[in-house]
Fold this protein.
Amino acid sequence: MAGPFFAISLILVLSGALKVVSPESAASALTTLGLPVPDPAVRLLGVGEMALGVTGLVVAGAGVALAVAGAYVAFAVVAELLRRPSRASDGAETVASCGCFGRNDTPPSLLHTGVNVLGAVLGFGAVVWPADDVWTVLSDQPAAGVPFAALVLLGTYLMFLAFTALPKVFAPPPVDVPTFSVKP
């Protein structure tokens, strides 16, 4: 479980850092849910995510894994709530961006919710089969842990793409509605 757990911990570090840099999208998403949170509070949330992710890497153990799993459960719930369309002032249905990675272009999708659920499952797996800290795990790997570290980074990157790029790939194309005008 060490590799997948380290990957989900790194995602927490990445998403937290991006919220610290650009909190506006996450603040907007939370406001959509009826939780008006100012940008400084979102930045603080980002720092907390980063701290949890780093703790998952350097402390290890079932307690930390449970906290990481809990974070992913919370993210899955938020993503699912944000997937529900809300009514914009003009009556058009809109879906807010989740703000997970500090950008406005990461709308929550079923895939987004599913990847968060996967993160929770992996976190709970690390509760049952706790991993050692990253340094201990790397020291037990062949080739100074380089192949293991490369696979963890690849898993982290693929998870990041699942959150950010794949929803756009599977999104329905925008529909151009033809307009007609009558010339006198």
User: Anything to note?
Assistant: The radius of gyration is 19 Å.
